[in-house]
Amino acid sequence: MSTEYLRLDQQICFALHAASRAFGNVYRVVLRDLGLTYPQYLVLLVLWEHGELPVKRIGELLRLDSGTLSPLLKRLETAGLVDRRRSADDERSVTVSLTEAGLALRERAELIPRRIAEATGLPPADVVELRDRLARLTAALDAAAP
Amino acid sequence: MSTEYLRLDQQICFALHAASRAFGNVYRVVLRDLGLTYPQYLVLLVLWEHGELPVKRIGELLRLDSGTLSPLLKRLETAGLVDRRRSADDERSVTVSLTEAGLALRERAELIPRRIAEATGLPPADVVELRDRLARLTAALDAAAP
DNA sequence: CACGATTGAGTTGTGCACAACTCAATCGCA
DNA sequence: TGCGATTGAGTTGTGCACAACTCAATCGTG
C-alpha cells in the first residue's frame, strides 16, 4: 500500500514529461512551416502581445534564464524576426522588439492555435481545468525547489 | 470569444511545459546525491522493475528513441550502473542489465518518491486523476502527430 | 535459396534547459 | 562620494530530445 502510493508520483511525473514531449511533437509539425521551434514561438507570442520587452521580462514570463534565452534570441535575430538593443536608461538591460517580418509572421501563426486545440481532443472546459491544476502543481513544485 | 478560446491551448501547452520543467528542478535536487539525471533515473526504474531489457523495449516504455537512449546508456555504463551486451539470438538487439552497483542504488533511491510526493502537495486521489488526464491527452496528441 | 525490405543500435547535427561562471552597469549605504 | 554588493546579459559545458542518417542483422517473399 505504501509502495502503491509511492509509485504514483513517479507516474505523475512521467505522465507530465510524456505529455509535454507529445505536445512538442505536435507543435514541431505545425511550426515547421514557420521555421520556428516551440520555445521560439513562445517568445514571439509574448512579443506579439507586449510589443517589446527586456530579456529579463521575457525570462520571467516564460520561466527561462539568460542561458537559454540569449542563444535563442540570437537565432531569432539571425532569422530577421527580432531586434535587440541595449536599453538607454539601463545599459545592462537589452530590449527585444519585433521586426516587420516578426510582426508579419503573426498572421500566419494565427492558424496554429486551432490546429493544436483540435489535436488535444479536449473540450474547452477540460482545458481550463487541466491548465489550472498544472499551474497549481507548478507553484507547489517551485515552492519546494530551493 | 473565438480569440479567448484560441488562447487556451497555448496556455495548456505552456502550463504543461512549465510543470514539466518545475518537476525537473525538484528531481534535479533530489537526484544530485545519486549522481543521476531524471531520464537516467527513469531508465533505472524500468530496469529495477524488469531486471534486464533490450534497448528497444526501454525506448517503448519511456517513449525515447535510440538517438536519446544510446548516449544515455553509455553514460550509465561509464558510471558502472549498467552492462550492455549484444543479444545472442538477435545480434541487432542490445540487452541492458544492472550491475551490482546499479542494483544497490535502488535502496538509496527508495527515499526519493516520498520526497517528490511531498513536493507536489497533492493528495493521492488528485495525483491519480491528473495522471489519467495527462495519459489521455498524450494519447490524443500521439494520434494527431503523424 | 536469394535478395530486397525492414529492423535495431548507433552517429551526427541542431536546439533547448540549466548550472556555473564572467563582466560591466547600477545600486545602496556608510 | 566612493566602494562593495547586486543585477542583467552573455558564455561555457553537460545532458536531453529529436531528425536524419549509416550499417549490419534479420525477415519475408518470389
From TrEMBL, chains A, B:
The keyword DNA-binding applies. It comes from the Bacteria. The keyword Thylakoid does not apply. Coiled coil: none annotated. Signal peptide: none annotated. InterPro entries: HTH_MarR-typ, MarR/SlyA-like, Transc_reg_Sar_Rot_HTH, WH-like_DNA-bd_sf, WH_DNA-bd_sf. It holds the Pfam family Staph_reg_Sar_Rot. Its main location: cytoplasm. One of its GO terms (molecular function) is DNA-binding transcription factor activity. Keywords: Cytoplasm, DNA-binding, Transcription, Transcription regulation. It is found in: Cytoplasm. Residues 9-139 form the HTH marR-type domain. PROSITE patterns: HTH_MARR_2. GO terms for cellular component: cytoplasm. One of its GO terms (biological process) is response to stress. This is MarR family transcriptional regulator.
